[in-house]
Amino acid sequence: MLKKIILLVLLCMFQPSLFSMNSSSYLISLTNSISTSSTTIQLSTKEINNVVLNDSSIKTNSCSQVLEGRILNSKNNTPLSNALFTLYLGGKKIQEVTSKKNGMYNLKLQCNKKYELKISKAGFTDLSITFESDLNSNKPINKEFNLNETKCHQTISGTIKSAKDESYISGAFVSLLINNEKVKTVETLADGTYSFVLDCYKTYTIEVEKEYYYGNSILFNTSLVPEMELKKDILLKEMLCTKTMVGIVLNKKNNSPIRNAEVELSKEGTLIKSVPTNNTGQFTFDIPCNTVYTVTVRKENYTKEMRSLKSNSNRKETGNIEIKLNRIGCEQTIQGIVINSHTNTPEPGVMLQLFKSDKLIETITSAADGSYSFKTMCFKSYKVTTNKKYFIDGSQYFVSGNTNNAVVKKLIKVSPIIEFVEVRGLLMLKTDPNNLTFVLNKEILTGAMVKELNRIVKVLEKYTYIRLEINIHTDSRGNDDLNMSLSKQRVQNVIQHLISEGIDSNRLSGDGYGETQLLNNCSNGVKCKNFEHQKNRRVEFIVLDD
């Protein structure tokens, strides 16, 4: 009682200037507006609540907290999304949130309150809890909840039938899938029936397969009603009865296979399909069962042949037919050598393709000595294309003559891609050596080197299939060990720069060799001119591929 009287007197005499508060008491410091003296008193929470202070200089802070955490499936400990969190205070709903995809939730609370929380999700048993927030302002409360799946089952059954006449299909394989994964497969009986036991509130797929029928599938959801029986009949469309016919076209004179002969399949004068024979003279057709067809074979400079073909009803049996053609007409040989236009030497391993009227006739590869040879018809227009890694296409056009069995010589030149050059039998990136010079006894990359390396980056981005072996050499001037150490460090700096520009480190390798691989006789103790030493100071980018 005495404290209250003192407080009222002081409020009349002094102007309040500062309040310090905590959860159990308030410390009030009052300063006289006239005098410089001050008075401090300690009051409990209960005592201060009995005094009304109207001074506008009194400030209070609100107290709030956060309840957060995850909601999980108690069965497999996986996060649950879209679980509904409903928060009640004094029996009144004050907040409602749903969990995120990762199961996280977040609820805002007031301090020192008693709450009721209800959590619900379809297919799971509801959960209700009561809890109290404390007086620790802005302190998050972490709580993980678990929901139990509701035990609920349904059944699905039905019949697999033919879409043609709705007759029952036995021996069909019926599969039940969840998330595209098969959980069970059954085979239909003589009456075409199937059945599965299902969980409630799930999404399922049923797939049906049967030999000589097109597969079919259905997608459906189960509800939350226990013991419900679903009925789903599924129709299958029967495939057209077909069988494979395999044939071969031969030269009647020597029984050698004839490639690129045109084989036509027709029925009652109507063309059904046309295919060329392969390199072994063979062709195939898939044709309906129990049908009569006509097979016609054509090839330039050969007689045309026609055969009648009848298929039976045995799907699994392969039909065979042999057709022989008589050779007629005029033929020539086109042959020559493929030359590297830069070195003027034969270029082996070049793929050559012969075209007539944009139709591919033959594909060959130049031999070790660069030679090639094609068989062509007389007085025809042809095109030969070239293809080899690191080379530009050297396509050529020509017209064959009209002399039977003549041999026509044709020289074909191919040019290397300008980014590459062959040095000492090795394929290397073409670089400007003036831009790849290090400062004497330094391993730091110069501005000119960085510019040249960035150009190399663009080449590597263009030809993604190549790898580089980067080798750096010094001349014989200077200490041998220092030269070796310098060259190795320079290689690492070059590689690191290329990596920093986005080139995969797996495409880069190399080493420094100091003065151990000189290109001339300018070794230790030999007097040479500067340009001779300069030949040994080099950075090489050797091209490798997979």
Number of helices: 5
Class of the largest domain in CATH? Alpha Beta
Q: CATH topology of the largest domain, what is it called? A: 60s Ribosomal Protein L30, Chain: A
Helix content: 10-25%
Return the CATH architecture of the largest domain.
2-Layer Sandwich
Distance between the termini: 96 Å
Q: Indicate the structural class.
A: mainly beta
Rg on CA atoms, Å: 45 Å
Overall, the morphology is flat
- Give the averaged pLDDT, no decimals: 84
Write the layout of secondary structure elements.
Blueprint: H1 2-13, E1 15-21, E2 25-31, E3 38-44, H2 45-48, E4 64-73, E5 84-89, E6 92-98, E7 104-110, E8 114-120, E9 127-132, E10 140-142, E11 145-147, E12 153-162, E13 173-178, E14 181-187, E15 193-199, E16 203-209, E17 216-221, E18 229-231, E19 234-236, E20 242-251, E21 262-267, E22 270-276, E23 282-288, E24 292-298, E25 305-310, E26 319-325, E27 331-340, E28 345-346, E29 351-356, E30 359-365, E31 371-377, E32 381-387, E33 391-392, E34 396-399, E35 407-409, E36 412-416, E37 420-423, E38 426-429, H3 447-462, E39 466-473, H4 480-500, E40 508-514, H5 530-536, E41 538-545
Parallel strand pairs: 4-10, 4-11, 12-18, 12-19, 20-26, 27-35, 27-36, 39-40
Antiparallel strand pairs: 1-2, 2-3, 4-7, 5-6, 5-8, 8-9, 12-15, 13-14, 13-16, 16-17, 20-23, 21-22, 21-24, 24-25, 27-28, 27-31, 29-30, 29-32, 32-34, 33-36, 37-38, 39-41
